[in-house]
Amino acid sequence: MTKIKYLTIIVCLSNLMSLVAQTRMESSLKENDGSQLWLPTINVSKMKEKTPQISYQGKLSKTISIAIFELQNAWRGQPIILEKTRGKKTDGFTISSSERQIQIVSTTDVGLLYGTYHLLRIQNTGIVDKNCSITETPFYELRILNHWDNLDGTIERGYAGKSLWNWSDLPDTLSPHYKEYARANASIGINGTVLNNVNASPEILSDNYLKKVKALANIFRPYGIRVYLSVNFASPIKLSGLHTADPLNKEVIQWWKKKVDQIYDLIPDFGGFLVKANSEGQPGPCDYGRTHAEGANMLAKILQPYHGIVMWRAFVYHATNDDRAKQAYLEFQPLDGQFHKNVLVQIKNGPIDFQPREPYNPLFSAMPNSQLMVEFQITQEYLGFSNHLVYLAPLWKEFFASVPFHTVKAIAGVANIGSDKNWCGHHFAQANWYAFGRITWNPSLSPEKIADEWLKQTFTNEPQFVTSVKNIMMQSHEAAVNYMMPLGLHHIFAGEHHYGPEPWYNMLNVRQDWLPVYYHKADSAGIGFNRSSTGSNATAHYPDSLCQLYGNIKTCPEKYLLWFHHVPWTYRMKNNRTLWDELCNSYDKGVQKVRFFQQVWDKMEPHVDTRRFKDVQTKLKIQSRDAVWWKDACLLYFQTFSRLPIPYELERPI
Ligand code: GCW
Fold first, then answer.
1. Which of 179, 390, 577, 623 lies deepest, with the highest CB count within 10 Å?
2. Do 280 and 418 lie in a common domain?
3. CB 495 within 8 A of CB 410
């Protein structure tokens, strides 16, 4: 048992003057390779010089010690009182400040840690108010990252190096990155992590790996982060040689029960399982004639006594003739109300697959009797990998413009984190990790506000820099949609790698629903996927008002036009251009935007350290070339059907 210590920590500080401005100056042009993220550098020698007075009365847990350490390292202001009060346990906190002191109050240790990070955030973004009173409560209880990390160190759709988890060294050697990762997550409220790929190796549940998982869980725990695992539904067969993985089979149930007991023995606060079943070749309950609900409930009942959960993915589609956009709905909607209470159905934001832009997945408005969670993709599988600067908060906000916050119980994000020095491959990709955390904490935060916070903490508070670069970030998603897939086009990526364009990709022996031609359907009459009542009728899965809106070519928002309709090349758009001219203009607009980003960034040189300035400049060059590649490839290919000229005033294809 941990020895309970009651102490009051009073560390005296001789100089209490506000050093906010000074801290900013120090951080702005210092060499920075991005490894520091948005958090204050830990500087033990400076801590001694400037340690503020911090008091806390109560049981000193590891979590509270971290909070005190962070404050001692970076807070430059009034004395601080950390106070734990009685009441309903939440992750929320209150910060109140007066001339003389600041008080952070919460009912939990982790709430005090979150309060600490919040205080440092407001200090670093330059808005510390002497008489403030802030109350923060996270909107979602579960704020979770999904790592698609394989046990061999590779990451599926990862573009920032190898996996952070050094499986071969664990549990004996613990990389310092584990703590830094936990610290970064805690600073933005992320409280869960699924360590391994949803295409799960059964090995993760072996005795050997569970010990490694335990070592990571021990490091993350004080930061308020619980560990979860993706599991392979056929694990009983693959690990222990059972002849079946049928969820209703007694032996199978017994196998999972024993496994779960073993896990909780090692990791008492283990979070639960994430399951990709009967999707893209993964095993699942349907292999035995059972439903997704039967599969999920079997695991859920076993996890329930431990308060564990099951996150069951609804990302399913098969090689049938029916529209891929309809398949998850057809399979999952009839199961509404059948899932056990500790099952969350995890649904990707759109009905196809993390495309640059998609309408929302209609399952979100069709399963009122189930607990749903949304899966966003932070890693930029379809958005230029770690080469393109694309700020994703506007994309996620677009989802929430259609799906009210309360519809989902939790948010998962497919992580973009790897072993690269700068964590995410592109300095600006860190903004997406940051924004994901902030949105799971408070989905009403605006993308502008989040970008503002991130820029100030990561680069500098210099107003000219913040305004100009925020402007780039805010326009970056729309720019990428324009130079890749404007007006509702989707999935016209090169086969396999999902980086560049290959709208012409068409092979006889490849599944139809993996071919771009299946999605854009360009022919001499027009372009686009008819999902209205005269086509696949996917529009019928939306509530009536939206079904009518999307189903009618005249009322369908133009950003989704080619998602829902096959449109004649000479169709008149709202601005009176023909569809073809509008398509050309959109691609061109995307390219010009990236050129504009380059110009703005070049002017930022005085405000940014050389290393990061050059890194971003180089990435923008790649992005700019790629944008031209996309424009030229798509327009020249589609022109073979439209047989119309590219408007005079636009840049010619190379
Ligand atoms: O988008 C597709 C990806 C796969 C991924 C799958 C999924 C983990 O291309 O790499 O597999 O989605 O989400 O399961």
1. 390
2. yes
3. no
